[in-house]
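Many introductory courses stop at the sequence. We go one step further.
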Amino acid sequence: MVAGVDLEAVLEELRRLRARVPQLTGALTAGVDGLVVAHDTPGVDPEGLAALTAASLGVAVRVADATGNGDFRELLVRGEHGYVATYAAGRTAVLTLLAQDRVNVGRLHLEGRRSATRLGELLDAAEAAARTAGPAAPAARTPPARTRTPRAPRATAADARAATDS
């Protein structure tokens, strides 16, 4: 996703968030393209969750746009056993939180929004730094050694007729 991201800083923010909201069972930062940036999601496949987040994000963005409610900010899904909350984190990422059903939803939103803002600042700064640094020079590639086996000349239709005539 973003080159040059300080993954340890992102992970530390996810850990602090889980410490502030004890009912969180997981936290994931992903690009809007569905690729994992960092995660703290014990027992949950982070790649699958990131892909599902990207899919639900696509729908949420379209709903917000179609209803005239502006840019996407957050999405909350309540299941029988808990919550999944997704927050915009900068221009190209999202923060997805998994929480128990007994979580204080107001606290979840408060802390989730704060962390999403911090993560967005980290990720946007890393993206800007990567953009100003320009594209990385491609590593010099040595072409693979090729050996050429000479081929026998192709038989033509005239050759085939001559062979059958004799």
